[in-house]
Amino acid sequence: MARVTSNFRCTECGWTSIKWVGRCGECQQWGTVIDQAEPVARVTPLRPVNAARSITEIGAESVAHWPSGIAEFDRVLGGGVVPGAAILLSGEPGVGKSTLLLEVASRAAALGQRVLYVSAEESVSQVRLRAERTGALHPSLYLAAETDLATILGQIDQVSPELVIVDSVQTVASGLTEGLAGGPAQVREVASTLIRVSKDRNLPILLVGHVTKDGTIAGPRLLEHLVDVVLQFEGDRQTSLRFVRAHKNRFGPTDEVGCFEMTGDGIAEVPDPSGLFLSRARVPTSGTCVTIAVEGRRALPVEIQALIVESKAPQPRRVVNGVDSSRVAMVLAVLERRLKMALSGFDVYVSTVGGIRVVEPAADLAIALAIASAFRDKAFAVTQAAVGEISLAGEIRPVAQAGQRATEARRLGFSTMIDAESAHIREAMRLAFAASVDERGDIPEF
């Protein structure tokens, strides 16, 4: 008699093993390896009710968005909330996810929508206190503190809302699935059930998702595939600025960015964040240069500051904040090799204003100019901005969306734009220092 051999398979990625393991060896997920020794039944073909048609015979139906009341949030979604859409919002603990969604719920209720806010982490009294502090009280906003999936479905049947917010999906459990809340099986069952209800009733649902230590969404990757929109709420606890980015959007673009600011009264949208990343005193100061960064489709002026201090240590310090440390190290090497700047004996500090992080290569030229300005102790004119990528040969390369950057610079009053028209970093330095503020008025040679 042939011996039956068990075959263990991961439900997430399909990885197989001859024995059971707690963690998948391929996708590194816990609790997803199950025994599939039983023979798989074959599926019998059925006659389809609706026959397949040519794509040219199918009419294009426009997706109807209805505004949530927050323009920056609607901007990221592609125009507003789509009926029947499942939206997943993730972010680090304490960044303000619940505050943002409570504001979305109150704005939607003020526009005539019946909203159900389900809190699986806080009591209704705690949510009510926060809503009173942020001014989010409205009669059409209903609160419920539930952690059982069946009870949440009962609340949806009783309230009959037009928008449902669940905070969060990792703290809700179903009695039909084994395991603790937050486990892969529970998250899969809860998300699948809520999304099925969303599609059947044409009801938009906003789900809050926790993140792991490396910043990815906790739970199985199937969660991101099930939902229609995946939003990332980013921000630093030391600053009040917050960004909402779309990593996946079936109803709109994925390159839009929404700007918000955390205040004592809640969260406020920032429709024009141009002045957030510039120093308040716009006076000529050595070691500063403005670049035009692009966040999604939005061009933002960012001031980069540099400080050069003579060091006696054998290995001078290189401290950066808001910029890529590897890009700064490369710019320092280019300046020392191509322009003969003796920077190896100085501590170099480079930072951005306002807490924004700029990692695109388009900020290379502004970083180089800020370092050179600090090294020469000469200030550039406040009407000057720089955009360009620097190669190892010292050449300045053109950047993406150059026209949009130039238009935004002119709108903000920057009359001089140093960019790829200066073929080499040496020419860019001469052009920048030609309008520098110096009592002697001389222009350094490079």
UniProtKB/TrEMBL annotation:
Domain writeup: The middle region has homology to RecA with ATPase motifs including the RadA KNRFG motif, while the C-terminus is homologous to Lon protease.
Its biological purpose: Plays a role in repairing double-strand DNA breaks, probably involving stabilizing or processing branched DNA or blocked replication forks. DNA-dependent ATPase involved in processing of recombination intermediates, plays a role in repairing DNA breaks. Stimulates the branch migration of RecA-mediated strand transfer reactions, allowing the 3' invading strand to extend heteroduplex DNA faster. Binds ssDNA in the presence of ADP but not other nucleotides, has ATPase activity that is stimulated by ssDNA and various branched DNA structures, but inhibited by SSB. Does not have RecA's homology-searching function.
Keyword field: ATP-binding, DNA damage, DNA repair, DNA-binding, Hydrolase, Metal-binding, Nucleotide-binding, Stress response, Zinc, Zinc-finger
NCBIfam families with a match to the protein in the record: sms (TIGR00416)
Domain RecA family profile: 62-211
UniProt keyword Zinc-finger, yes or no: yes
A Pfam family reported for this protein in Swiss-Prot or TrEMBL: AAA_25
Residues the entry annotates as binding ATP: G91, E92, P93, G94, V95, G96, K97, S98
Name of the protein described by the UniProt record: DNA repair protein RadA
Signal peptide: none
Annotated organism of origin: Antiquaquibacter oligotrophicus
Domain of life: Bacteria
Short sequence motif named RadA KNRFG motif, residue ranges: 248-252
Similarity annotation: Belongs to the RecA family. RadA subfamily.
